[in-house]
Design a protein that fits this description.
By secondary structure, the chain is mostly helical. It folds into two domains: 15-118, Rna Polymerase Sigma Factor, Chain: A, CATH 1.10.1740.10; 119-215, Winged helix-like DNA-binding domain superfamily/Winged helix DNA-binding domain (Arc Repressor Mutant, subunit A, Orthogonal Bundle), CATH 1.10.10.10. The protein contains eleven helices and no strands. Helix 4 (69-86) packs across helix 5 and helix 8 packs antiparallel against helix 9 (176-183). The protein starts with 17 loop residues before the first helix and ends with a helix. This is RNA polymerase sigma factor. One of its GO terms (biological process) is DNA-templated transcription initiation. One of its GO terms (molecular function) is DNA binding. Residues 150-201 form the RNA polymerase sigma factor 70 region 4 type domain. Belongs to the sigma-70 factor family. ECF subfamily.
Length: 215
């Protein structure tokens, strides 16, 4: 809504108007509300801003769930196609946009995991390694590659629900309450999944001290 700025120090008449209060409440409920409204209006600047804001986290989420960077990028592209279709009809108040987007991405990941149930464990462990820090010494780069490969392979071997719980809370940095809501379970159930996931990962990485420190 042009002409209103969300400034708590503004004591003018506009700050006390119903329109201002409604706009401020909308932003407090969902910080993406205004951006999604602009995307729904097909504002190209808003689309670019949304991609810049959400793409890295979407790809990271899907990569951790699927263990494959190329598939993760496909999932992110599918998610943005759904955003493009849904944005004109998006209504605030039911769920935060970011919560909905995480759920869409997770469902797309589950679709792909179901489609490759016949894959072998070796297939799940074939994960592309991240680029090493160019400033690190060669031996440090090797250790980093080895550690990341072990952690990624162990993560890919977890049961899907344990992997989802760990990815949402550790890698996506959601609170336990937010992650539990996304997964449709109680916080106690989430914490149980996390405890089992961490126990399994630590057991698998027991021979790699640096790997244990990464979980």
């Amino acid at each position: 809504m042009p002409g209103f700025e969300l400034n708590d120090d503004d004591d003018g008449a506009a700050a006390n108007s119903p329109a201002y209060r409604a706009l401020k409440a909308s932003h407090e409920r969902d910080p993406d509300a205004d951006l999604i409204a602009r995307v729904g209006a097909r504002d190209p600047l808003a689309v670019r801003a949304l991609v810049a804001s959400k793409l890295p986290r979407l790809v990271a989420l899907a990569a951790r769930m699927l263990g494959d960077r190329a598939e993760a990028e496909d999932v992110a592209q599918e998610a943005f196609m759904r955003i493009w279709k849904q944005a004109p009809n998006w209504r605030t108040g039911e769920a935060k946009f970011d919560t909905w987007l995480h759920r869409v991405a997770l469902n797309l990941c589950y679709d792909r995991l179901r489609a490759r149930r016949e894959a072998t464990a070796d297939d799940l462990h074939a994960v592309a390694e991240p680029a090493p820090d160019p400033a690190a010494a060669p031996d440090q780069q090797f250790e980093a590659r080895t550690r990341d490969a072990r952690v990624r392979a162990a993560l890919a071997a977890l049961p899907v629900r344990q992997r989802e719980a760990l990815v949402l809370t550790y890698y996506q940095e959601l609170s336990n309450l937010e992650a539990a809501g996304l997964m449709g379970i109680s916080v106690d159930a989430l914490e149980s999944l996390l405890a089992r996931a961490r126990r399994t990962l630590r057991a698998q990485l027991a021979g790699d001290a640096s790997g244990k420190d990464s979980i």
